[in-house]
Write a structure and sequence with these properties.
It is built from 8 helices and 20 strands. It has helices at 19-30, 64-84, 103-114, 124-130, 153-166, 208-212, 298-309, 358-369, and strands spanning 10-15, 35-38, 54-57, 89-91, 94-99, 119-122, 140-145, 149-152, 170-172, 177-181, 186-190, 194-202, 222-233, 247-250, 260-263, 271-276, 280-281, 313-327, 334-337, 344-348. A hairpin with a 3-residue loop joins strand 11 and strand 12. The longest helix has 21 residues, at 64-84. The protein is globular, with a radius of gyration of 21 Å. The structure holds flavin-adenine dinucleotide and (2S)-piperidine-2-carboxylic acid. Residues 56, 58, 249, 259, 261, 277, 352-353 line the site of (2S)-piperidine-2-carboxylic acid.
Length: 394
Amino acid sequence: MAAQSGSSVYDCIVIGAGIQGSFTAYHLSKHKRRTLLLEQFPLPHSRGSSHGQTRITRKAYPQEFYTKMMAECYQLWAELETESNTTLYRQTGLLLLGPEENPEFCSTWRSLVQNQVPCQYLMAQEIQQRFPGVCLQPGEAAFIDHTAGVLYADKALRAVQDLFCHFGGTIRDGEKVVDIKPGSVVTVTTTSGIYQAKSLVVAAGPWTNKLMASLGLQLPLQTLKINVCYWKEKVPGSYGVPQNFPCFLGFHLNKAQHHIYGLPSKEYPGLIKVCYHHGNEVDPDERDREAKTPGLQEIPILSDFISKYLPGLEAEPAVIEHCMYTNTPDENFILDRHPSFQNIIVGAGFSGHGFKLSPMVGKILCELSMGKAPDCDLQPFRIQRFQNHLKSAL
Ligand SMILES: Cc1cc2nc3c(=O)[nH]c(=O)nc-3n(C[C@H](O)[C@H](O)[C@H](O)COP(=O)(O)OP(=O)(O)OC[C@H]3O[C@@H](n4cnc5c(N)ncnc54)[C@H](O)[C@@H]3O)c2cc1C
Ligand SMILES: O=C(O)[C@@H]1CCCCN1
């Protein structure tokens, strides 16, 4: 296979057509950069982290930097809706539930108030009146982020990719990147071609470290298999959007070690999605293999939670699908240049909460690859914060 001639060197190659790589490519092509988006699987696919019909969007975060970033994200999502002439967001509100004194619960409330996000703290009686399907225990409280809602994930991904092509970008799917050679011009070898570009963005989700190996870097990433569970309403429609049932996020309720969250019924009539914000570690290429050792058993945790907190649902899952998280130790993203190669940019570690922020993630990765300094403070996203965890792969 011969490399392309000098005249066909791209401005940028983006590896990975999940939501982060696709949004990066979209912003690049809007800036008139000649961009190639490479994806190992034929599109659309359900082997990574960006598939499925819905994701939660919200401004409620304990870290104010996410709350602030979300202000621009809402504008960019609205712009995408206009450009694609597609509805991608439905406002439902997000009900945050937690022990009154839980530090994360309290700092999330403070972040909403300090940033003047429309929100409301609810007394126990109000919760019962407004959400009769939700039963809190004594000592637990709730508040609403009114800005929150559901993003239509599959539709959004398609819209971003279509617009990228419309603005002049090229997608090559079914082409796995097998080698990256750094340099002032980066050379990328796939299963069917060799491409060159002035800069490279790696947005490979759970496969990031597999690609980083040839670039001498191993990031502290953990890839988790997530069971996406749907539960049947005992009375059809009782947890639906028409009944004003919101998305919810529970902070360590029922002594659960991780968050439990849910979305009103949408994908499957009569079923609502309720999931555990953690899973078992997997190799992304072997996601569907039976685990060799028994790990986290989250379905019984969810069943117990549902019987106590959402008693209008049957306490056995009706449908289970799969997805993957790529977690960093602090669950903040990685948005940075490769420490040794300034024209190679990494976007990774979205830790199960990156979809809503993808318009800004794509903008930041685009700016980094164009050699521009993004407006937003990148300190929380630097690779350097993991100095003690970094492994050289050379
Ligand atoms: C169950 C679940 C629920 C979630 N809920 C929410 C939510 O409510 N709100 C929210 O904001 N976020 C949520 N998230 C997180 C969000 O979906 C992810 O952060 C986001 O989708 C990550 O996108 P990505 O582009 O980084 O990864 P991916 O979507 O995995 O994309 C990476 C792509 O790179 C490709 N690739 C990898 N290696 C190669 C290679 N060698 N050559 C070519 N291509 C390659 C892969 O095939 C893949 O398509 C959830 C995630 C899951 C799994
Ligand atoms: O990003 C979110 O809003 C959700 C919260 C709960 C876990 C999954 N992701």
